[in-house]
Design brief:
With 451 residues, the chain is α/β, with parallel strands linked by helices. The chain is built from 19 helices and eleven strands. A five-stranded parallel sheet has the order 2-5-8-1-9. A two-stranded antiparallel sheet has the order 3-4. A two-stranded antiparallel ribbon has the order 6-7. Bound molecules: adenosine-5'-triphosphate and magnesium ion (MG). The site of adenosine-5'-triphosphate has 16 residues, from helix 6 and helix 14.
Length: 451
């Protein structure tokens, strides 16, 4: 399947999956309006097409996850490469629930999640907004013994204080004005499953006392009732605040903090795992293409440079939103003008990201604070140097990847990965007649992704 698709699609196999998804979508829309089939048959076929589409999405995801590690890569202290660790997780049938990326700190979090999942120990996940805390909670649920039981999510920050107790524990009819019926709370709904207490740092002190009691006794009381109800619920809590600090300040009970954080996972902000940005761009571009039923959007070099250097205060959610936005607004090729206005730099500003150029008069440079830390700036500069080097090399060999690999003494698949990382297409460096330069009888680039 991949072979056939590779001839029509010019980039990675995951993009080919997007092509396949596109075809399934076309099939679905044709089916939907079919005049020759009975409604029941149409529905049945649509259901099958939908599950096929989901399967392809999964495959695409899995493939990317493994592929990203293909080339030579640094080993960690234990002498294991990232790819090996990720593949080990896959081999153990770990369920990622759409978590994507191969940054060392993310892998560590996933490995902790894997170990914690089958236990009933409480887990506390912290990290900035949009770093994937809820996703991680779902990963823990999906890999545990309760995966076929309910996963109930409660946003402690979104419920008014006076309703919180009833929301969590339920109430009896007449317990307060407006309580016109008996009602069960989230803890009872999550019985035998997992309750996800999001924004736990916002839980008022009174609620904290009650939660502590549940953690100790595994029993709840509906508001207005004396009856104790046993609940068997696994607790996963998340916060973007520093609970330890809040507890030192007396705003969060220390005993509850220790109870909740038996297993503590901290998700790093995206700007501290920049190595994942190229992969996430490709992944979300692909995902957005699937959702929007379009071909994956291509990025101009200056948009790409911007996306690689931007600081992402909204973390992965922000990157995902940006990819959906540009996939929706742009035609074949997206550029900086498709970015949201509040982060959109002017042309000079983009140059400033990479080369610290002084903008032309009258144009507003983007502030350094919006962009990145000094270490990020250094990394971006080193990325730029790498890209410029590869571009020059490709020009010299007229786009023959095998030849370039030989000249710079680099493993070909590693070189392919670097080209992909920088969005470089060897065919853009071919001679005018579209042929790679001839370096001998056997110099065809069999593994050239563009080939
Ligand atoms: N590693 C990842 N791979 C793929 N998608 C991710 C990853 N991490 C987060 N996402 C996606 O980013 C978005 C934000 O993730 P999530 O809602 O889990 O973040 P959060 O930490 O709970 O944010 P908040 O603090 O704002 O509630 C979701 O769409 C999620 O699917
Ligand atoms: Mg969240």
């Amino acid at each position: 399947m991949m072979k056939i698709l590779d001839q029509t699609e010019e980039t990675s196999p995951a993009i080919s999956y997007a092509g396949l998804i596109e075809r399934i979508e076309i099939l679905r829309s044709t089916l939907r309006w079919s005049s020759r089939l009975e409604r029941a048959d149409i529905d049945k076929l649509l259901r099958q097409a939908t599950s096929l589409r989901d399967e392809v999405m999964q495959l695409s995801h899995k493939e990317r996850f493994v592929q990203a590690a293909s080339a030579a890569e640094p080993q960690d202290a234990a002498g294991q490469s990232r790819g090996a660790r990720r593949k080990a997780l896959l081999d153990r049938s770990f369920i990622f629930e759409g978590t994507f990326g191969d940054n060392l700190r993310l892998l560590e979090s996933l490995e902790i999640a894997e170990k914690a999942a089958p236990t009933d120990l409480p887990v506390l996940i912290d990290g900035e907004s949009g770093t994937g805390k809820e996703l991680m909670a779902k990963v823990i649920h999906a890999n545990g013994a309760r995966s076929d039981k309910p996963f109930i999510s409660v946003n402690c920050g979104a419920i008014p204080d006076n309703l919180l107790e009833s929301e969590l524990f339920g109430h009896r009819k007449g317990a307060f004005t407006g309580a016109s019926n008996d009602r069960k709370g989230k803890f009872e709904s999550a019985h035998t499953g997992t309750i996800f207490l999001d924004e736990i740092g916002e839980l008022p002190l009174a609620g904290q006392v009650k939660l502590l009691r549940v953690l100790e006794s595994h029993e709840i009381q509906r508001v207005g009732s004396d009856e104790m109800i046993a609940v068997d619920t696994r607790i996963v809590a998340a916060t973007n605040r520093n609970l330890r600090q809040l507890s030192e300040e007396g705003k969060f009970r220390e005993d509850l903090f220790y109870r909740l954080s038996v297993i503590h996972v901290t998700l790093p902000p995206l700007r501290e795992r920049r190595d994942e940005i190229p992969l996430l761009i490709a992944w979300f571009g692909d995902e957005a293409a699937g959702t929007l039923k379009r071909r994956p959007v291509r990025l101009t070099p200056r948009l790409r440079d911007f996306l690689l250097a931007y600081a992402y205060p909204g973390n992965i959610r922000e990157l995902r939103n940006v990819m959906y936005r540009i996939s929706c607004l742009a035609g074949e090729m997206a550029d900086v003008e498709h970015l949201p206005l509040d982060i959109r730099p002017n042309a000079a500003g983009v140059a400033g990201v990479a080369g610290a150029n002084v903008p032309a008069s009258g144009e507003q440079p983007i502030s350094v604070a919006n962009l990145m830390s000094l270490s990020d700036a250094k990394r971006a500069a080193s990325d730029d140097a790498e890209k410029a080097f590869l571009e020059r090399g490709l020009r010299e060999v007229s786009g023959t990847v095998a030849e370039l690999a030989r000249r710079i003494d680099m493993n070909r698949s590693h070189l392919q990965m670097l080209l992909k990382k920088h969005g470089l297409h060897s065919k853009d460096f071919r001679n005018r007649n579209g042929q790679p330069a001839k370096y001998g009888a056997n110099e065809r680039d069999e593994d050239d992704a563009e080939g």
